[in-house]
C-alpha cells in the first residue's frame, strides 16, 4: 500500500472514530440540559438524579472524545501539508474559529458545571450546561463549515496558486455546511436516544429497583427517537441538491467528467463504488431505526409496557449501535464520494499529501490507529461500567465524603499534679 492510500485510510479511521464521540456528546448534552431545566424549574428530584447519572456518562464520552479530536488534527500537518499550503488560508479559518470561539468556551463552562454543583446558584448552574450545549453546536457548525467547503468550495479566489478567502459570509452560509450541520444535530439526538433507551432497557430487563428512574429515561429516549428520526433523513436528503454530479451520476455526470478532464487531465472522476455501498447501508439502517421509532410511537402511551416488555428491552439494547453504523456509512458516502478530490474541483487528494515516504506514513498509521483503538476501548469500558452502576453509583455532583470523626483519646494513666 502506497503512502497516499495509507494516509487516506489513517484519516478515515481516525476521523470516523472521532465522529462517533461527537455524535453522542451533542445528543447527550442536549438531553442533560433539558433534564436539568426540568429539575430546576419544577424541583423534580428524579430529574435531578437523572441529570447527574446521564450527565456523568456525557462527561466521560466528552473527555475521551476531546483526546481523539486533538490527536486527529496532528494529521493535517503530518500527512497533508500540500493541502495546508494551497488552501489552508480558507480551510483553516473555520477550524481556528472552532478552537478559539467554541472549544475553549465549551470546555471552560463544562469545568464550571462539573465543579460548581451545589456551590453555585441553581439558575447559574443551569445556565452553564446550556452554554456548554450551545457551544458544542457551534463547534460542530464550524467543523462542518470547513468540511462543507471541501465539498463545495465558495467565497475564495486563487492568487499565485494559493486559495484566499474573499467572502466569509458565503463560507459560513454554504448550504452544504448548513444542511450537514442540521443533519448531524438530529443524528446526535438519535444517537443519544438509542443510547438512553438501551441503557434503560438493560436496567429494566434486570428488574432494577429504580423502575421509575429508568421508565422515565426510556420514555425520554423513545420520545427523542421519534422526534429526530424523520428530520435526520429530511436534512440528509436535502443535501442531494448540492451533491457533486460525479457522486450522484445523472445527466450532468458526463459534462463534469469532460470539464475535469480538460482542466486537470485524464483521471477516474466518477465516485468509487464504496461510496454507493455507504449510501445503501445508511438508508437500510435508517429504515430499521424508523421501524423502531414507529413501534415506540404506537406503544408510547402504555407506560406499563415500557417496564414489562422484556423483548423490547433486549431489542433496544441490541439497537444501540444502529445510529453509529448509519453515521459511518453516511460519512463514507459523503467523503469517499468526493474522490479523487480533496477540495472538489480545486485540489486533488494526491496533490494534497505531504512529501514523505511510506515508512513515515506507516509509522504514523500504526501509532494513530493503535492510540484510537485504545481510546475507543477505554471509552466503551467506562461507559458500560458507570451505566451498569445506575444512579446510585453516579459521582457527578455528589457531596464529598465527610472527614472521619477524631478518635477519642485514651485516658492518661499519668498522675496530674
TrEMBL record:
<feature type="transmembrane region" description="Helical">
    <location>
        <begin position="127"/>
        <end position="150"/>
    </location>
</feature>
<keyword id="KW-0479">Metal-binding</keyword>
<feature type="transmembrane region" description="Helical">
    <location>
        <begin position="177"/>
        <end position="199"/>
    </location>
</feature>
<keyword id="KW-0408">Iron</keyword>
<keyword id="KW-0472">Membrane</keyword>
<keyword id="KW-0349">Heme</keyword>
<keyword id="KW-0812">Transmembrane</keyword>
<keyword id="KW-0249">Electron transport</keyword>
<dbReference type="InterPro" id="IPR002585">
    <property type="entry name" value="Cyt-d_ubiquinol_oxidase_su_1"/>
</dbReference>
<comment type="similarity">
    <text>Belongs to the cytochrome ubiquinol oxidase subunit 1 family.</text>
</comment>
<feature type="transmembrane region" description="Helical">
    <location>
        <begin position="55"/>
        <end position="78"/>
    </location>
</feature>
<dbReference type="Pfam" id="PF01654">
    <property type="entry name" value="Cyt_bd_oxida_I"/>
</dbReference>
<feature type="transmembrane region" description="Helical">
    <location>
        <begin position="90"/>
        <end position="115"/>
    </location>
</feature>
<keyword id="KW-0813">Transport</keyword>
<feature type="transmembrane region" description="Helical">
    <location>
        <begin position="310"/>
        <end position="333"/>
    </location>
</feature>
<feature type="transmembrane region" description="Helical">
    <location>
        <begin position="12"/>
        <end position="34"/>
    </location>
</feature>
<feature type="transmembrane region" description="Helical">
    <location>
        <begin position="220"/>
        <end position="240"/>
    </location>
</feature>
<keyword id="KW-1133">Transmembrane helix</keyword>
<feature type="compositionally biased region" description="Low complexity">
    <location>
        <begin position="407"/>
        <end position="417"/>
    </location>
</feature>
<keyword id="KW-1003">Cell membrane</keyword>
<feature type="transmembrane region" description="Helical">
    <location>
        <begin position="361"/>
        <end position="384"/>
    </location>
</feature>
<protein>
    <submittedName>
        <fullName>Cytochrome ubiquinol oxidase subunit I</fullName>
    </submittedName>
</protein>
<feature type="region of interest" description="Disordered">
    <location>
        <begin position="396"/>
        <end position="417"/>
    </location>
</feature>
<feature type="transmembrane region" description="Helical">
    <location>
        <begin position="277"/>
        <end position="298"/>
    </location>
</feature>
Amino acid at each position: 500500500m502506497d503512502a497516499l492510500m495509507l494516509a487516506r485510510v489513517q484519516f478515515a479511521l481516525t476521523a470516523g472514530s472521532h465522529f462517533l464521540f461527537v455524535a453522542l456528546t451533542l445528543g447527550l448534552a442536549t438531553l442533560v440540559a433539558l433534564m436539568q431545566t426540568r429539575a430546576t424549574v419544577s424541583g423534580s428530584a428524579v430529574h435531578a438524579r437523572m441529570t447527574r447519572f446521564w450527565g456523568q456518562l456525557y462527561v466521560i464520552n466528552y473527555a475521551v472524545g476531546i483526546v481523539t479530536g486533538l490527536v486527529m488534527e496532528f494529521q493535517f500537518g503530518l500527512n497533508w501539508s500540500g493541502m495546508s499550503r494551497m488552501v489552508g488560508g480558507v480551510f483553516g479559518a473555520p477550524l481556528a474559529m472552532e478552537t478559539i470561539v467554541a472549544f475553549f468556551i465549551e470546555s471552560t463552562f463544562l469545568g464550571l458545571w462539573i465543579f460548581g454543583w451545589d456551590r453555585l446558584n441553581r439558575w447559574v448552574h443551569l445556565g452553564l450546561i446550556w452554554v456548554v450545549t450551545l457551544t458544542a453546536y457551534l463547534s460542530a457548525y464550524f467543523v462542518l463549515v470547513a468540511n462543507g467547503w471541501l465539498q463545495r468550495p465558495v467565497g475564495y479566489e486563487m492568487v499565485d496558486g494559493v486559495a484566499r478567502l474573499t467572502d466569509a459570509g458565503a463560507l459560513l452560509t454554504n448550504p452544504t455546511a448548513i444542511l450537514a450541520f442540521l443533519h448531524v444535530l438530529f443524528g446526535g439526538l438519535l444517537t443519544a436516544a438509542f443510547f438512553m433507551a438501551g441503557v434503560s432497557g438493560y436496567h429494566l430487563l434486570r428488574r432494577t429497583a429504580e423502575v421509575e428512574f429508568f421508565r422515565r429515561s426510556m420514555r425520554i429516549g423513545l420520545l427523542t427517537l421519534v422526534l429526530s428520526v424523520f428530520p435526520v433523513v429530511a436534512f440528509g436528503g436535502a443535501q442531494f441538491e448540492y451533491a457533486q454530479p460525479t457522486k450522484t451520476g445523472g445527466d450532468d455526470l458526463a459534462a463534469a467528467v469532460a470539464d475535469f478532464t480538460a482542466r486537470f487531465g485524464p483521471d477516474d472522476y466518477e465516485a468509487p463504488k464504496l461510496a454507493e455501498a455507504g449510501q445503501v447501508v445508511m438508508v437500510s439502517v435508517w429504515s430499521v431505526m424508523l421501524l423502531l421509532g414507529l413501534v415506540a410511537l404506537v406503544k408510547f402511551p402504555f407506560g406499563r409496557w415500557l417496564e414489562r416488555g422484556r423483548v423490547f428491552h433486549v431489542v433496544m439494547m441490541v439497537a444501540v449501535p444502529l445510529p453509529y453504523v448509519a453515521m459511518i456509512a453516511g460519512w463514507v458516502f459523503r467523503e469517499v464520494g468526493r474522490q479523487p478530490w480533496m477540495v472538489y474541483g480545486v485540489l486533488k487528494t494526491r496533490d494534497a499529501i505531504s512529501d514523505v515516504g511510506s515508512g513515515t506514513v506507516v509509522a504514523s498509521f500504526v501509532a494513530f490507529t493503535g492510540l484510537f483503538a485504545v481510546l475507543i476501548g477505554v471509552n466503551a469500558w467506562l461507559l458500560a461500567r458507570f451505566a451498569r452502576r445506575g444512579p446510585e453509583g453516579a459521582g457527578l455532583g455528589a457531596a464529598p465524603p465527610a472527614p472521619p470523626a477524631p478518635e477519642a483519646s485514651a485516658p492518661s494513666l499519668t498522675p496530674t499534679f
